[in-house]
Amino acid sequence: MFEESPATQGGQETVGGQDMKDQWQRVKSALREIVETVLLTLLIFFAIRALIQNFRIQGTSMEPNLHDDQYLIVNKFVYCLHSPERGDIVVFHYPRNPRRDFIKRVIGLPGEKVEIRGKRLFINGEQLEESYALNSSNYSWGPQRLAEDEYFVLGDNRSSSSDSHNWGPLPRDAIVGKAWISYWPPEYWRLVPHYSYAATE
Is 69 contained in some domain? Predict the structure, then answer.
C-alpha cells in the first residue's frame, strides 16, 4: 500500500497555508474597497451639501410666484462668484432666529437708500418698476441707507410677509444661497425665475 512521504505531506501543508493567505488577502482587498467607497460617498455627499441645499417653503409670503409646501434646490456656491443681485430670490437665516430659514426677494443692495411709499418702492430716490407678479400692499418704510454689508428683502406677497420692512436690513452673512430649481410638486418643476430690474425716473 502506498504511503505519502513526509515531503508530500509537508507540501500539502504549504499549499493549504497559501490558500488561507490568499483568502485573507481577498478579504482585506474587499474590506478596503468597501471603506474607500464609503469614504468617497461621504466626500461627495458633503461636497454636494456645500454647494446646494434643499428647502421647503412654509407659508404664502412669496405668492403668487412660489407656494406653500413647494420644494426648491438652493445654489449655495453662486454667491462665492458674485454678490446677490436685485431681483434674486434668496434663502437666508432669519436674523431674529438663525435656526429658521426664510425666503424673500432682494430689493435693495448695499449702500443704497431704500424707501417705501404706499405701493411704490424707491431706490436712491428713483421708483422701481417690478416686472414680476406680486400682491402689493400699502405701507411705508424709510428712507434708510443700507450699510455696505446689508440687503433689503421683501416677500412677493407684501401684505403677508415678515421681511425687511418689519425687522430691518438683512446682513450679507445670513444669506444661504439663491433659489435655483423647483422640483416638487411636479407641476412646479422648473428653474426658479429671477428678474433683473433697474430704477426708473
Answer: yes
User: In the beta sheet, which residues pair with residue 102?
Assistant: 92
Residues near 168 by Cβ (< 8 Å), separated by ≥ 6?
A: 95
The amino acid present at 123, given as its one-letter code, is I
The letter for the amino acid at 177 is G
Residue 135 DSSP code? B
The answer to whether residues 43 and 68 belong to one domain is no
Asked if the structure places residue 2 within a domain, the reply is no
Q: Are strands 120-123 and 113-118 parallel, antiparallel or unpaired?
A: antiparallel
Tell me whether strands 89-93 and 101-108 are parallel, antiparallel or unpaired: antiparallel
Indicate whether 101 and 186 sit together in one domain. Answer: yes
pTM, two decimal places:
0.77
Catalytic residues: 61, 104
Residues 39 and 78 in one domain: no
Task: Tell me the per-residue pLDDT of 125-153, one tens digit each, with 9 for 90 and over.
Answer: 999 988 888 898 989 999 999 999 999 99
152/146 Cα distance (integer angstroms)? 8
Q: Which three cell numbers, joined as nine digits, stand for 40?
A: 468617497
Q: What is the number of domains present in the chain?
A: 2
